[in-house]
Each structure stands twice: as structure tokens, then as C-alpha cells.
Amino acid sequence: MLNLDVQSFVFAGSTPTVVRSASPPTNVSPGLRITAKRYRHTGTQSNVPSPVESERLTLLFLHCVGAHKEQWEPTIQAIFERTSKQSPNKTRVREAWSFDWQNHGDAAVLNKSAGTVTVYDWAAAISAFVKSDHVKGHKIIPIGHSAGATTVVLTTKYLPLELKPYPALILVEPSVVTKELFEKTIDDRMEQMELVVRMTTARRDHWASKDEAFVWLSKRYPWSTWDLRIVKLLVDHGLEQNGDGARLKCDRKHEAVSYTQVEGHFEAANLLSTISKTIPVHLIWGENEDIIPEIIRDSLNNVSAGMNVASVRAVEDAGHMIVQEKPDALAKAICEVLYGCIPPCSVQTKL
Questions:
Q1: What ranges in 111-226 are assigned the alpha helix state H?
Q2: How does DSSP classify residue 55?
Q3: What are the beta bridge partners of residue 314?
């Protein structure tokens, strides 16, 4: 297995001009914080790249509702391993960053007093990072899953499109939908939303220990369908250990309300119709349409409606939680996008 250098960061506020290491973060200052991890090849010592390194890509990873930054780690590991084996004339990864939404993961520990945090708040913080010195001059490709994909699209609200801030966007099971289509399928959408909210608010969120949590989660749906590495990462990084046992860092109420905030997904759909004309947009779906139905998937690839995505791919035996279920197959799909193996037109392939 390829060894990666992993460093944790806390960004002060939504404009991360100052970064300090934090492992683990501590709740020492007011206001919202952004937590992140940076992944590099072991031995990378300097932020000043060689000419070859400056041509490589920096990947930004944004998770779905209820997840956290570490759940991307098996996919990130597989991407580094795949790209490190490629010939020098192929695109390689310079570094990867994975971020917590402000009320998820380690950020939730720092922002315990935070109220509602929307995808707009997250998008503003991520776009501030993109404009910061930490990735100045980098070729950045953001990769978002579900609500993280919506957030990726919304970052373009804060970035000048004429400068083409990204060489490409990779959207994994995006929860992007037009308001018109949402209203057309309102009964199904509301039934699904209400079910998810009920399940989230009633879900167990506390265990006597992390070991007990791992055993409990591993045997129950939906976690029983996940790659066991992701379940372990949820226990290690998604739970906070204290004298009362182990509890989810992301408050169930905050997670539940995130499912009901639909305006950001509507605006992202409108933005995507513009963005896709100038920036290659790649869609990756799970083969199983367990959450996002075919009618919504097709709408994001509807040329007559203004969409002009560069490629569409499906990963076998995966559903909406593709990051959690099939991280290695997802990494393969992402690498093929990075290498330009997909022709510049809409295609449907299976891994």
C-alpha cells in the first residue's frame, strides 16, 4: 500500500488565510470553523513544486449529508495508488484535500453552537479556500458527492467563471435538480424526504464505546452494505468519545434539516446549465437508482434543457452511497476522468 502524508487543518472562519495544524481539533474559539485534511505522496516537503509537479492536479473532496471528510480516504488512497503506477506522460495527482461541512465531522465539534448551516455556507468557505494561497497556482478539480456535488457547483457563484477556475468538475450522485422537475415529481420527492428525516431523527446516535458502535453498525442497514473500511472510519472519526460513551459528532437534528434545504439544489441546476458549456462536467452514478430516479438523472444530461455534460458513468453494484459502498470502483471511475479516457461526449459505461 502506498504511504501518504496526511495533515489535518483548521481554517479560521470562511476566509482561510491562516491555517494551523490540529489533531484533534479543540473548541477554543467562537465562530464557524472549517476542518480539512491534506493528502500528499510521502516525502513531499515543500509547497514550491517542480515544473512537472505544477502540471499535476489538486483534488478537492466534499462529502454528502451525514458523512465526514475521512469517508473519502479509501477512494483517495486508491486514486493515489492508481495514478502513481501510470507512465510519466499521464496526469498525476499533486495533492488531495477533503473537507468537513461546518456542522459535520470534526467541524461539528468546533461549531457546537452553530445553528443551521446550508450548502451556501459550505460553498462560500470552499470557494474562499480555492482563492487562498494554500492552492495558489494549482490546477484544481473539485469532486463532490450528493449535497457535496451541489456545493461544488455553488462555489462557482463566488469564483469568476471567465477565469475558468476548474479544469473540470466531477459530480458523484449529485442531488442537483431543477425546481420545475422537483415540483413535477413532488409527491415522490416529499415522501422520500420525509422518510429520510424520520429515519435520521429516530436513529441511534450513542453507544457505550466505539467498539460497541462498530459491532452494532456493521450488522445493520445501511451500514451493513458499506465497505467495512468506511464503517471503521465512521466509528473512528464520525463519533466523539467522552465520559458518557461514543456519540455521533454530527447532531441528528442538523443532519435531518439538511435534507429539507432544497433551494441550493435548485440553484445548482440552473448554474450547471451555464457552467457545463465552458467547464467539462463529469457525472458518476451508482448503477442502482435507490435514491435519485432516472428522470432526474436524465435531466442533468438533457442537451435540449441546456445541459452539456462531458461524460456520464455508472458504477456496478453501487447505489447513492457509492463513496461508502464501492470506494475502489469509484476511484477507478475518477481516475479515468482525470486521465481523459472518457471521450468528450455523453457516454454510459459500467465498471
A1: 119-130, 147-154, 179-184, 186-202, 210-218
A2: G
A3: 285, 350
pTM, entire model: 0.91
From residue 342, alpha-carbon distances to 6, 173, 335 in Å are 30, 18, 10
User: pLDDT tens, 3-16?
Assistant: 999 999 999 755 43
Q: State the CATH architecture for 4-338.
A: 3-Layer(aba) Sandwich (3.40)
pLDDT at 346 over 70: no
DSSP helix/strand/coil, 248: strand
Q: Which is higher by pLDDT, 27 or 204?
A: 204
Alpha helices per DSSP H over 175-326: 179-184, 186-202, 210-218, 228-238, 252-260, 263-275, 294-299, 322-325
CB 144 within 8 A of CB 62: yes
| Cα angle 128, 133, 137; round to 5 | 105
Contact between 172 and 71 under an 8 Å Cβ cutoff? The reply is no
The full set of domain ranges for the chain reads 4-338
With CA atoms as reference, report the closest residue to 103 among 1, 212, 252.
252
